[in-house]
Amino acid sequence: MKLFKAKPIDIEAGEPIVIMNPQDTAELGIREMDRVHVEIHGKNVVAIVQESKTMVAPGEVGVILKLQEDLNLIDEEQVNIKPAQRPQSIELIKKKMDNLELSTDEIYMIVHDMANRNLSKAEIASYITAVYVNGMNMRETKDLTMAMVESGETINFGDRDVFDFHSVGGCPGNKITPIIVPIVAASGLLIPKTFSRAISSAAGSADIMESICNVTLTVENIRQITLEVGGVLAWGGAVRLAPVDDILINVEYGLTVDPHSQVLASIMSKKKAVGAKHLLLDIPTGHGTKAPDEETARKLARDFIGLGEEIGINVECALTYGGQPIGRAIGPALEAAEAIAILEGTTGPRSVLEKALSLSGIILEMGGVTRNGYDEAASILKSGRALEKFRQIVEAQGGKENITASDAPIGQYNKQVMADKSGYVNFIDNRSVVKIAREAGAPYDKGAGLLIAKKGGQPVEKDEVIYTIYAEHERKLKLAESLARRLRPVRVENMVLDRIPMIKKL
Amino acid sequence: MKLFKAKPIDIEAGEPIVIMNPQDTAELGIREMDRVHVEIHGKNVVAIVQESKTMVAPGEVGVILKLQEDLNLIDEEQVNIKPAQRPQSIELIKKKMDNLELSTDEIYMIVHDMANRNLSKAEIASYITAVYVNGMNMRETKDLTMAMVESGETINFGDRDVFDFHSVGGCPGNKITPIIVPIVAASGLLIPKTFSRAISSAAGSADIMESICNVTLTVENIRQITLEVGGVLAWGGAVRLAPVDDILINVEYGLTVDPHSQVLASIMSKKKAVGAKHLLLDIPTGHGTKAPDEETARKLARDFIGLGEEIGINVECALTYGGQPIGRAIGPALEAAEAIAILEGTTGPRSVLEKALSLSGIILEMGGVTRNGYDEAASILKSGRALEKFRQIVEAQGGKENITASDAPIGQYNKQVMADKSGYVNFIDNRSVVKIAREAGAPYDKGAGLLIAKKGGQPVEKDEVIYTIYAEHERKLKLAESLARRLRPVRVENMVLDRIPMIKKL
Fold first, then answer.
1. Which structural domain, as residue segments, surrounds residue A433?
2. CB contact under 8 A, B65 and A54
3. What is the pLDDT of residues B219-271, one digit of tens each?
4. Complex ipTM
5. Residues of A known to be catalytic
């Protein structure tokens, strides 16, 4: 134990770091990544040591923002520093590296240490890598899921049946959520839908809805609006529902890996935390999606259903076609407009309509509303009840009253891209479409994106418009145009090779 | 591309980090862990993005010390920021996670990115975890070793045969290096010995030698002294010999793992860089060492010999007994004194003497000096030539002229620990001995440590001294005493169970 002068350092770090001079660490017999107890005012925190010769002199210890708060530290006070044990989680991560099964207690301990920010990013990266390589069995995955749920807040709807829906993702233009939720809510079922923002895509459901209303709600908002209106469309990142998931996803993103058991636990923990009892999972399959072939998709479905049984959620899965963009619009406001137009009864793209009605229909059947869900969903939509429900949700979330498709703030700059020959559209590359929309500003610029005029299998004449790029800034439009010239996301060939059915039902 | 006001931030980070406001990262469509190009003055560096709401305002970018230098940045200048590709190494790490063999080019690329600090600690942790779980074959290990060699400086002794020696470690009190090097040098062979400081032990060779002379030498010092005197005893961490090794060892330490192929590459790259053509490897086996059983030790030996063949180093291995401390002294100055006393011809502990002569002898035989290395080594020692050579080395490294055992600065505070009954010493716990020496201040306090009076198999009377604790500070002596009472590192029993031979020759 030694006294140090605390030097407040205004770093926000995801890790509880103290910064020490190498001379002091040598004297204390510790190194970078070791832990120390920091004591002052009767408070004691465990921090991870980082060394610096320039930030702190010998005898000083740099204390980052979060720890300053935890310790009630006021400027240069004296703190006690002494070596501490490492979290036991580090041994448990090594156990997973050695391909051993982790017990329930061990998994809870790892999740607890992550939730309390006791682990460094390097340690979490090692955990993710070990789980990626060695996997987890269903018992471990169940414990992981429940530990993640218990690491944060949960919403309780009491005895009410609660429904939820999730798209596993990987397919651009998938704006079905703002159509499904109001249909389901209009049928009388509760559906508190939370979702994420785009990470590598052009628009997540949160970005789409945020172009027309507020999505940053509290847990109590979500509960209230769901009970009052029947449904909600909220950003999951704003609430502490299974917050460990956000820590893990950040590191996974850095490493570009998605361990299978972590994907299962990630999705299911959010659903459990929101109080869902019935879940429909949309698993798009096809080139460029997370389940590129049907076998992978079916395996994923089985695992979700199995995990659901373990944690008390009744899961059904729909394998859907995701080989080309869903609908014509890619980008937040463009997708919002397309979804609202469909709710308004405008003849929108058949792929969006069919997918939304099929999936809504399955939920209605799961909820015992009808035995013919598709037709019932179509009837709710046609009657205008879905549009009305959507408007109620948007208003409850601080959006415009009686919103219409034309209210979506689409970028004022646009550029039409023409076919350079006649033929058929035989391939639309999901990844290129997303890259162009992002170059145009999506998802940050809500009005940016792409509107596809001709989709797979459609005939096209030379100089006909095949798609239009939208942007909020002229400079970004130019950048997107130039990228589009290089990527050529829509391939026009002289012959249709095949016509692929839009929807596969389970 | 966007212009930002650069805000110099005096953080030393092992990673090339820029700090950005989340608003800006959202607009650029990037996240934490993504890379950006930072451009100014015609210079361009790639940095890893970290987000902070408090350190930088929107429109500002925080630039850490190393990048300020790389960019010649003077206070708040305007820099260009645009998204950059991630290093390809991240894909290659994923390839190793997927248990695929990495090509020569791929391994060089990973090492290059580490050497240039292009990878975050989390990414390096993921690499180490993947290599730990999936391993590397001999071809990959060879490429890894050579890539690590080529990442730093190398020493060239031209046509001269160069010898080296390395203890794989895990055994306390192993002060044979300061005895072996002068014997070998006195025989006319060149032995430029570099070594590390203690990490978790009570004294590395660097700590032992540092108690009596300077060990922080340059590459040119090491070459000159070796050519002039025949040998050198230098700290490897001060020179850029296979510097990637130091980066990896830091992260391995944090994760408490030593991937097998990384251990091989780590040791052999340092030897190759120093110009060694012949290497004797000491592999202690026994409870608490890195090779706890003989089978593990033999496997390790085979792998080192195989890797040596691949990279042009003639390797021999000696499996040695490491089940209890070597000699009686534990701690930098205590070990220096014990080693010098042996060079002076004092009857020191048989275990140290035998081990040093056996190993020196093997090196003399490898060098063709004699066919009976043990006797030749003993004769060099007895003649006083080894002591004279040791004194030359110490002087060349700035130490005292004609150094003697009594020059080693042993701590002024000491406490004798007595046997509480009569019997035989039947077990000395390596780990407890090290913990007590460290509590007393070793390796930072050079004079701190333990002197064991009674070793395994020796009879002891009640109230006889079994060991003495030394410290430079009274406070630390008290702490070590109290730890010693709890750990009881030397067990006295009523009967000797067995007497274990000190040395096993290969």
1. 413-493
2. yes
3. 999 999 999 999 999 998 888 898 899 889 889 988 988 899 999 999 999 99
4. 0.86
5. 258
